[in-house]
Amino acid sequence: MKGDPNVFPTKDVLADYLVEYATQFELPFQCSTEVLSLGKLDDYIVLITNKGCLKTKQVVIATGHFRRLLFRLFQKICPQRIEMKVNYMVKGR
C-alpha cells in the first residue's frame, strides 16, 4: 500500500488499494453496493443487495468498533459457520 507505513492510511489511500487489489486478482468487486440482508440456501450464504442477489460460500464482515455486538447478530444467521477473528493494528508497529 502506498503511503507512510508508520501511520494509518487515509480513506482515499485505502480505497485505491482495495481497487488495485481487486483488479490485480480479478476479484468480483462491486462499488456502492448496500447489503440489505443475509440468509442461507443449502450450503451457500445469500446476500440481497441494492444491485441484486449474490450467492457465496464465505462472507467477510469488517465491523470496526462494534464487532462484538454484530458478531452475535451474525451468529444467529449462520451459527455453525461464523468465526470471529480479531486483528488489532497498533500504530507505529
Molecular structure report:
By secondary structure, the protein is α+β, with helices and mostly antiparallel strands. It has a domain of 31 residues. 27% of the residues lie in helices and 19% in strands. The chain has 2 helices and 3 strands. Strands 1-2-3 form a 3-stranded antiparallel beta sheet, with no helix packed on it. Strand 1 and strand 2 form a beta hairpin. The longest helix is centred in the N-terminal third of the chain and has 14 residues. It is globular and about 45 Å long. The protein starts with 10 loop residues before the first helix and ends in a 16-residue tail after the last helix.
Summary keywords:
93 residues, alpha+beta, 3-stranded antiparallel β-sheet, 3 strands, 19% strand, globular
